[in-house]
């Protein structure tokens, strides 16, 4: 199962995310204890927000660090280039715009997305955001991060066990 | 204070006695405003001016401080023999110094009761200076002086600067005995620890001892744990050595003059004493037992040991009356018999064995020694009870200055008091609680005598308690035996309580409060349970989302209290209410028998409590538990806070147990020279209707149609029971109207009521046509307008307002009193209004054939028109399990009618040739006056497909051009209308309510203003009839005349939450679930067994979605998810989960109201002209599936990445999906993928479940774990976090 970790959204704290080992490949790969991770899920409070025409960039602070996030709002251009002009009937952009309205400074957000780099810094390319109304979900996320790290993210991979 | 400086003004006891309100004083105050002339002025007068409140009696007035320093001086002594028993037991006496020292002889004898802190026996008989004190004037109006509480004091002659004199091993207590008798053998000694002191009691002497003039000796016992060592036995006095062994128990009987020593002995409890000069005597009690005792004599002297170097025996067994507790008094109830300490423990004072000290007030710190502690587990609460016994002593450590109320029990006990005294401690506590409840509940409604009883008559509380408590009379033991044997019934404690279930008769203010807190916790659960609750609990109406309403039904088995109250009709709503002095609550008694007097107090053990209100976020407010003993004892100062919440109870008639005072007035019906009219009730006016406003009276009104028949009884007697027969005749026969074309017929029949059965005849006319055929025009209809009357129920007869039912038949005694009047001339018909006061009565009436209620057509279902039969079928589906009736079905109503007019088949068959006539007559008797429409027929009228329907209907009654109709349906939802809607319809600002009702096929809404009282019971799932709603421009409106009748309510809870959460609790309780790890998929071991698993996950993508049009009618939305395949992500790995039906809907979040893009929405909803309509996704899907029957969406992408471009939607019916439909489906999938976490419970997938769907899975998915999703429910982050934290801690 270990090879599938790059498929899941790993529940992670900002400090851990920002300290992932980066491999200078293209596209860049990220390693956590020898395992490749590509997607992440964070829970934190929005501390800044910058809305542009094509994207919304915002920063999530979960108490261990701040993670810059980018939510693209230009799916229609992407679609227009690939499919036969059906962007009018693709709800992705509308949904993304609606999502961007929910990202307000001070709200507790659950963010899922791909781990990426921009200008050398790690950031999240957002797939979806959920506003958490119950503040206990932040605590639950911390506990899940600890538990998952202990049980599946951080134990040395089988290959590494033999090597060292 | 220095000797040379002018001291504070002296205050004497005589001055104290002048005070009329609780006062506090001190010898030194920091306040600089001491008048310099104070030494010359009379402080008494001054104080009189400053405290002129003579009205104080027993209220809780705070102590008024004297604003300048005063020094009180007087002599401390033992109480005098003439003082009351309670004072002699606990108090000292404080009096002015000897007469020679006083300025005026008149004040010399003045003395008050005195309680003193830091008592020292050395002060007895000496003058003391009281440095700080409280004074409570006498609480008894004409009696003894009040109570002085000495907070700080010193001896008058003691030099202030002198060091305290060093004391020896023993300090003598200065008792002064008048020498009465010569020496006897008074060599008895006791040296030891005082354990306990009994109350002062008088012991009857045996007949042989009792001389002619001798009276019973008065005294008290002291239990002393003595040192039995030889040295002590010989040496007098004992030596100052630490080697004493206190092991032998001795009892000393202080009798006659020394019985005054009790206050000192109480102080000595726990201290070492040396008592000499005692006589040894054998005291025998009855024939049973005898005890060797030391009895005090004239030579008796007491010395105490201020400091003992050795160790004293510890003795503390709370269960054997040896407990010790010190705490602050936080409440005193039941005339001082129940004292709450530290808000936790309850001290129950047995006043026969322990007179409570005067200073027992709220705020005081007391210490209680030698009690029995027990934990009482009542059904509704748990308390710690400290029960006093004959050994208990209570000392006040600190006086209360916040409260000045002295709690004194009235001496006059009566039957109830004796009963309370006879009870064991736990039962006695409950009894005092019960008395407190009943007093709160009924003293305003009934007389004190009726509730509490009197010297020789049991009250309601007494009767009620004897019903519940086992009536065991415990043998009375003499106090001496109890005290000496150490037997205070400790063994019996607690055992009795289990045997009988002691319940709480809750005051209704506490009940309303309890209902509110139940509702709040239920709302909080709902709110916290689902992160999307704000949206999913909404209800769409005209494109706007409103807060929907919901209901909770709680069975009495889950509540730990019974309802005790009297039943009244509310003048505000016209509904029955269960009432007590603290509050009221609506009550529904579906099978309430007609003409039943509901006077008195009822107990209801088995009931259902319904809570009904809008789903809204409400916070807990910080108030005490309404069921706690404290809340019950002190009347809860509580006002209903949740105004939108309706609380009511539903009770069966047989569950009402009459426990209260009865009103024995037999209701005889006087029939002599009276006519009785037959009525059909056509309408009941709600309380705030126009009619009531016009008449400006407190009366309630109903409208009835008088049927053209009158009833007359034949016989010589006075009362109906003595009648010999009757005649029921058509009213035209009585008059002289031109009945030329009418023929008459007479049918034999019988009338039964109560246990009486009368034979009689029905004489009627019928209009015949030329060939003898009966004209098919009901007489009633022809005369309908002229025979319509208004029934006025005066304030005193509100109870009768509850009983009539619209469309019910009744017999009314003609108020004109004439036996000859005709329909036309009868006053009650002409006047148009009949007042029904408490003397008159309406009796319900039914027509039967051979005792069978259903004659020729559905008489029993008159309320439901022919069009609503279908609707009945729909409702009957749920009748058995889900519905709770609030009114009885028509069949039962007729069955329970007071009068039954019965025709025998035989008699009718004899008249076969006139059969049509008979039918005609019977139809006339049972004529239906108004038709109740089903929702579907109502819709037909509102939007007629063919013109004839509405044209026909328009012949019915109209008011101001608008149609008034009656409609019945099942309530889908009820919500208040907010300003949003009002802006759309300007000028209709009074509209505030919208009720959605439906039947199998259609739904309508009824809007209008309604007061809070008339919406009780109208919640989702209720079957409701709206009488006289206005049909205006295709809208149904509530009018001021609309009467709303709730036939039944639904058991089922209609919120999504309850659907989801009910299985959750079961699963979580089940230990078979694998829920240990948050990364289940990661660990292969969890898949080796086939147990169900619960985990927390999010939808990564949707693989396949097969949607069908639902074939099950009534399902909302009409969409069925036949199969849905999801890729689930739990943070450790991915798995493939499959689901159908409701579980798939929850994972897809179909029920959520989503803000669809306007363009999608508008084109999907034909005829929509609003630009901001909201629909549930399910609602839009429904429209699509109507067209395509079945739709499949496949995801061609590679999980877990997701793009709408990879979705491939197709229709089974080979119709091409429009782009908008395509977009809708994509939206649904996208919406599901972008949402938060859910909990799922899965089991292993049976491949057959998905085989039929031709599912091709992409390669990465084929390697994933396949699971079948059994349950889906929201995450409770707090609960999950706690569980996870626990796992992490223990791993």
TrEMBL record, chain A:
Chief location of this protein within or outside the cell: nucleus
Keyword Nucleus: yes
Matching InterPro entries: NA-bd_OB-fold, NA-bd_OB_tRNA, RFA2-like
Alphabetized Pfam families for the sequence: tRNA_anti-codon
Keywords of the record: Chromosome, DNA-binding, Nucleus, Telomere
GO molecular function terms listed in the Swiss-Prot or TrEMBL record: DNA binding
UniProt subcellular location: Chromosome, Telomere; Nucleus
Domain OB: 42-130
Name of the featured protein: CST complex subunit STN1
Species in which this protein is naturally found: Miscanthus lutarioriparius
Phylogenetic lineage: Eukaryota, Viridiplantae, Streptophyta, Embryophyta, Tracheophyta
UniProtKB/TrEMBL annotation, chain B:
Region (Disordered): 28-53
Subcellular location: Chromosome, Telomere; Nucleus
Annotated Low complexity bias: 28-41
GO cellular component, one term: CST complex
Recorded superkingdom: Eukaryota
InterPro entries linked: CTC1-like (IPR042617), CTC1_plant (IPR028262)
One GO molecular-function entry: single-stranded DNA binding
GO BP field: positive regulation of DNA replication; telomere maintenance via telomere lengthening
Keyword Nucleus: yes
Keywords: Chromosome, DNA-binding, Nucleus, Telomere
Family in the record: Belongs to the CTC1 family.
Name listed for the protein in its UniProt record: CST complex subunit CTC1
Lineage of source species: Eukaryota, Viridiplantae, Streptophyta, Embryophyta, Tracheophyta
